[in-house]
Design goal:
This protein is mostly helical. The N and C termini lie far apart (85 Å).
């Protein structure tokens, strides 16, 4: 449902209603999954309560601001409110009714009449009628007569439709209510003080004719009372009637008796939207973020914007993103919420670079999300971080690849220096797989090229292809791809080729070698010690001999 602040588009009420229904379907499915768990722990029970609360809140906002605003439908909120009430706070439970009706002496069951009063309060008139007819044969003659009459009247309860005018429906409803009023008067005049059935039947009739005192006395919760008052007293009430009715009902209860869910629902009924969002956040941060987003889509969030110091949609989306971004499995969702909340890229970068990268797969995922939101700075820092991690683990090829992604040529050069140092220390040229893997990826770096070309020289020399080996060695020196500290080693490696039986270097090539040696002596990077009395003298003598041989050829 969310879209980024840069991509806000108008969404029709019908589309919002479909999306809202999908969200609620997922919540209900999750409740069923949790309830079907093999072991219902305290944590699972708490999750069930949370999802139940979120669904109740979401559903009520849906019927107030979306369902009754659909064109072509009755704007009366009553049928939708009763649907909401019985779905989210089901009563009486079907299994309780089955157990009561299965009792041997139904009329003597002390739970029967409270059950039927609850059926009346919740508008389950068909079930009420069936139950009255079921128990009638076991009652006194007077009670049985009225039970059957009430059942018949309950089945005739007027139901509105979009094809009927308000005047027509109100007329049918008035006649139905008058019939109930006459019943109540007749039963009250007949009932003996000791006939529990007649007394209970009278209470049922009083509920159905909308007697406020009886409804308040019999209702166990404010939801019971408000639903019955709407259903029987104001069946055509619109959503804007809710605040005044809810205010009258809520006054009958102590504020200390209310849960956070109660407070959220009452605030929504009273159109106290800033308080509503605060209570939603106390239920769950996910709920407040999505409620704020939905309210923004249906253009009722401006009231909250005037009451909050910051934009409530961005605030709650950011808060939710902060929670998820540190979660082991929900970090990607967290980044998505931060992006949806219009958070500045510099802030998202700081969150992204703090996500633990336990595996290569997760690292790729994090980088993908960062690229999705254009977090170039985060991509750069994460690649460098991963490069350092791989370097410490000895995975030098992977380290080079990460450094190459952000153009960190200095770090690549240091790794190449490490590879060269390992070769000098061991005498074993083992870096081949590392440089092959990164070169195959198309990476170009002078140090890597040096290592590759030196390996080529080494392999040619080992294969006794001395002329080819000499050409490669000279090419390395002439191209200056070798680091200054490696030149001395290369010159020493040229000595066997200069002294060999086969003439490898021409006079011009020999002079080039001598020039490189002279430049090395004058440089500040002598590398491995090449002193005038040792290897450098040997190299010079070898060059002189090779020059002499080259002139004789």
């Amino acid at each position: 449902m969310e879209t980024s602040s840069q991509e806000r588009v108008a969404v029709g009420v019908d589309s919002l209603l479909r999306m809202s229904a999908l969200y609620r379907e997922v919540m209900l499915r999750q409740i069923r999954v949790l309830q079907e768990a093999s072991s219902v722990t305290e944590f699972i029970a708490g999750e069930v309560d949370t999802f139940h609360s979120m669904h109740a809140v979401w559903h009520l906002l849906e019927i107030i601001y979306l369902t009754t605003n659909l064109p072509g439908l009755s704007t009366s909120i009553v049928p939708y409110f009763m649907e909401w009430l019985n779905l989210n706070f089901p009563a009486p439970l079907a299994e309780d009714g089955q157990q009561i009706l299965a009792s041997a002496d139904l009329a003597l069951n002390t739970e029967l009449w409270p059950y039927m009063k609850k059926l009346a309060l919740r508008g389950h008139v068909s079930v009420l009628a069936n139950t009255l007819e079921r128990v009638a044969p076991e009652l006194s003659a007077q009670a049985a007569k009225w039970a059957r009459d009430i059942a018949k009247t309950a089945r005739n309860m007027p139901l509105g439709s979009s094809e009927e005018t308000a005047g027509s429906f109100n007329g049918r409803w008035r006649r139905w209510s008058e019939e109930l009023q006459n019943m109540a008067t007749a039963i009250a005049s007949l009932q003996p003080s000791d006939d529990v059935a007649l007394e209970s039947l009278n209470t049922v009739v009083d509920i159905m004719r909308g007697d406020a005192d009886t409804i308040s006395e019999e209702g166990e919760s404010w939801q019971d009372i408000l639903g019955a008052l709407l259903l029987y007293s104001e069946p055509t009430a619109q959503a804007d009637r809710l605040p005044s009715l809810a205010g009258v009902v809520v006054e009958q209860f102590q504020a200390t008796e209310f849960s956070v869910l109660d407070r959220a629902l009452v605030a929504l009924l009273n159109y106290e939207l800033p308080e509503f969002l605060v209570f939603c956040n106390q239920i769950d941060p996910w709920l407040s973020a999505h409620m704020a987003d939905l309210m923004d889509h249906i253009s009722i969030l401006d009231v909250c914007r005037a009451a909050f110091a910051v934009d409530p949609r961005e605030h709650y989306l950011l808060a939710l993103g902060e929670i998820y971004v540190g979660h082991e499995n929900l970090w990607q969702v967290g980044l998505d919420y931060l992006g949806l909340g219009g958070v500045a890229k510099c802030v998202m970068v700081e969150y992204a670079v703090r996500i633990p990268l336990e595996s290569d797969a997760k690292a790729r995922q994090v980088l993908g999300v960062c690229k999705k939101y254009g977090l170039a700075a985060a991509v750069d820092r994460i690649h460098r971080q991963l490069g350092r991690q791989q370097w410490r683990r000895g995975r030098l090829g992977a380290a080079i690849a990460h450094f190459a992604e952000v153009g960190d040529r200095a770090s690549i050069g240091l790794i190449c220096d490490q590879l060269w140092g390992q070769y000098l220390a061991s005498g074993v040229l083992a870096y081949g797989p590392v440089v092959d893997s990164v070169m195959a990826a198309g990476l170009s770096h002078e140090r890597l090229l040096f290592l590759v070309r030196f390996r080529d020289f080494h392999e040619s020399y080992k294969a006794k292809q001395f002329v080819e080996a000499g050409g490669i060695l000279l090419a390395i020196l002439e191209s200056e791809i070798a680091p200054p500290y490696a030149v001395a080693d290369l010159l020493v490696d040229a000595i066997p080729l200069l002294e060999g039986d086969v003439l490898v270097f021409s006079a011009e090539q020999t002079l080039e070698l001598m020039r490189c040696a002279e430049a090395l002596v004058q440089s500040q990077f002598p590398g491995r010690v090449v002193d005038n009395d040792g290897e450098l003298k040997i190299f010079s003598v070898a060059c002189a001999r090779n020059l002499a041989r080259s002139y004789l050829v």
